[in-house]
Design a protein that fits this description.
CATH class of the largest domain: Alpha Beta
Number of strands: 15
Distance between the termini: 35 Å
Radius of gyration: 24 Å
Number of helices: 14
Mean pLDDT: 92
């Protein structure tokens, strides 16, 4: 398919690559030569203000992809095919899907001024998706389905890409064990806190675990292994390995033999990535140290990451990750709300809006995190299952990518998380039934 525009630039090239990869069997061929375009006999798309012929597919462009710099954009929502849309223009499609999708997946709004949340993050309440009530939908995937149908009506001979639904279960190991391998000082502190609060159950629980009378309540690794084996699922594990256990960085020290052993064991059968500590967000040298440390433990370069507490600032965070060798990141989502931060259920390359260039860092957005359902939305396991299934159905409808985040302590024996283990088991096992 031949694509015409008056001129080329990095934003437009990026979107042509993205949309071609999502729906077309072959890449769009881009030309600015009007004579060559007009003489072309095959399917062609005109992305300019002037329509040339009835036989072409015409989209009048919004200025966004031809601008330089970052500016406030006027967004006027309208509904198309029962779904929200914006950047309405004339032509054979009612809005500029290239510019609208770029605004969302580039996270354009996160480069503008905003009031950060208590963790210094871009708050989901400030997003267009939340304000216009489409945070719970992979909107870009829906747009692409409608766009594909429109192209197919115009050019029945076009061959489109056939995509399959893909599910990636992933786990953040923030606190590998509740009591074990924390050292004398941290466990004494835990005993004292339990006594001061009158939490005798936790005091006795800690005692029994430390003296090997029972299993640590956060140790769910064997159970997860069995579940993955039964469901034929390959999981991703992200380990927090901060050298200093301070603030929200509370994991077992990576200097401990047991922690190294746990990481190495998972690296032998799963994909293992770095879970950069909160501290690493303040100092790049700390991030480099953690990546190097994990590489030594697993015996190979570290290529995967997800930010602890989803601490992320654009473009600085992604630039730092790329600088230390990360080429696949799983942080694209909110730490305080489930849904679709970039309004998409597909992986995509990050576009550095400040540098105006496509990068080699591929992003894998997530839509569901257990801690959000538990702590922020305060859902019961049953209600969380309904939420999880709602995302599953929406993503399955567009044959998209579903990434979920879970934590090992939700599947252990801590009574606080009773029922969550069963919810996850039902979800994973039901997937086998649906996929056969």
């Amino acid at each position: 398919m031949l694509f015409y525009s008056d001129h080329k630039n990095p934003r437009l090239d990026y979107m042509l690559d993205f949309i071609s990869g999502e729906i077309l069997n072959e890449p769009l061929v881009h030309t600015c030569d009007q004579t060559a375009y007009l003489s072309y006999a095959g399917a062609k798309l005109n992305y300019s203000n002037e329509r040339f012929s009835k036989g072409e597919f015409h989209i009048q462009p919004h200025p966004l992809l031809f601008e330089t710099g970052i500016h406030d954009q006027e967004i006027k929502r309208f509904d198309f095919s029962g779904k929200p849309a914006f950047f309405q223009t004339s032509g054979d499609f009612p809005f500029d899907i290239f510019a609208a999708a770029f605004f969302l997946i580039s996270r354009y709004e996160e480069y503008l001024l905003f009031q950060p949340d208590k963790f210094g993050r871009f708050p989901f309440q400030a997003s267009l998706a939340f304000r216009e009530n489409f945070l719970d939908f992979p909107l870009i995937n829906y747009w692409l389905e409608d766009f594909k149908k429109s192209l197919q009506q115009k050019f029945p001979e076009l061959i489109f890409r056939l995509k399959d639904f893909k599910f990636i279960p992933s786990y953040d190991i923030d606190i590998a064990y509740s009591y074990k391998f924390k050292g004398l000082k941290r466990n004494l502190g835990g005993f004292c806190r339990s006594m001061m609060k009158g939490q005798w159950h936790y005091l006795l629980d800690r005692w029994d675990v430390l003296f090997n009378k029972k299993k640590d309540p956060f140790d769910s690794y064997e159970w997860l292994d069995s579940l993955h084996l039964y469901c034929r699922t390959r999981a991703y594990y992200f380990f927090l390995i901060a050298n200093k256990q301070v603030g929200v960085d509370k994991n077992i020290s990576p200097a401990r033999r047991q922690m190294k052993s746990l990481i190495a064991y998972h690296a032998s059968g799963y994909t293992v990535g770095i879970h950069p500590s909160w501290q690493s967000g303040d100092e790049e040298a700390i991030l480099m140290n953690e990546v190097d440390n994990l590489a030594r433990i697993i015996g190979s370069p570290v290529k995967y990451s997800r930010q602890h507490y989803i601490r992320m600032t654009l473009p600085q965070t992604y630039r730092r990750l790329a600088d230390v060798g990360i080429d696949k990141d799983f942080s694209m989502g909110y730490g305080s709300s489930n849904g679709f931060r970039a309004s998409i259920a597909s992986s995509f390359y990050w576009y550095d809006l400040k540098a105006e260039q496509k990068t080699g860092l591929m992003l894998f957005p997530f839509c569901f995190m257990d801690t959000v359902s538990f702590y922020e939305e305060r859902l019961t396991p049953k209600a969380a299952f309904s939420e999880l299934m709602d995302y599953y159905r929406k993503i399955r409808q567009v044959n998209g990518l579903m990434v979920t985040i879970w934590h090992n302590h939700f599947f252990g024996s801590d009574p606080m998380f009773g029922g969550w283990k069963e919810v996850y088991e039902v979800f994973l096992k039901d997937q086998i039934y649906w996929d056969t």
